[in-house]
Fold this sequence. Notes:
The protein is α+β, with helices and mostly antiparallel strands. The protein has helices at 93-99, 116-132, 137-155, 170-185, 193-205; strands spanning 15-23, 29-34, 38-45, 47-52, 55-60, 63-67, 72-77, 84-91, 110-112. It has a five-stranded antiparallel sheet. Strands 2-7-4-5 form a four-stranded antiparallel sheet, with no helix packed on it. The longest helix has 19 residues, at 137-155. It is globular. The N and C termini lie far apart (51 Å).
Amino acid sequence: MxxxxxxxxxxxxxxxxxxxxxxxxxxxxxxxxxxxHYLFHLILSGKGSLVLNQLKYxxxxxxxxxxxxxxxxxxxxxTSSPWEYVWFGFGGESAKKILSNSRLTHDDPIYESANWDxxxxxxxxxxxxxxxxxxxxxxxxxxxxxxxIAQLVKETELFKPPRNLTYISSTQMNxxxxxxxxxxxxxxxxxxxxxxxxxxxxSLRL
Length: 206
C-alpha cells in the first residue's frame, strides 16, 4: 500500500471562457484585436500567419500560438492553403502563475511539439463534451481545461526541475564539504561567498 500527499494547491479560479474550431476561407483575417484573457490556437492543417507584439510568424500544421492578456494580435489564413485550427480561451490568477513557467508567456509565443496530437485530442474532446450537453459536461470541460494547460506547460517548460542531488559529481560534493568546513571554522568572523569559494578551491588543490 502507498499513499500520496499533495501540497496546498488550488486552481479553482481558472475560468474556461470559450473554445471552437474553424476551417478558414482563403485569406481570412482576425484582428487587430487586444485580448483580455489567454487565447491558444492549435493548427490542425493548412497554413497562416500571426502578428503579435509587432513580430510576424509563419505557421503550419502541428504548431500553435498563445496570446496573453493585453497583447495586440492579428492572424491571417494563407490564400493558397488556409488553415484549420481549434482554440480555447481561459483566464484566472492561477492560470497566470502556472503559465509563468512556460516560454509561451516569455517572448516566445509559438507552440511546437512532436506530441501536438495529444493536445489536439484534449481540445477536440472538450468541443465534443460541450456539444453533448449531458449532466456533468461543464465539470468535464473544466477538468479537460486543466489537462490542456498542464500539457502546454509540460511541452513548453521554461525552467527545468532542479537536478537530482545523487547525480552531482564528486568534485562538486568536495566543494560543498570544503565550503561547509570553512564556514564552521570562521563562524565568528564575517565572510562572503567569494572568500568561501576561494577557500574551498584552495583546499581542493592541496
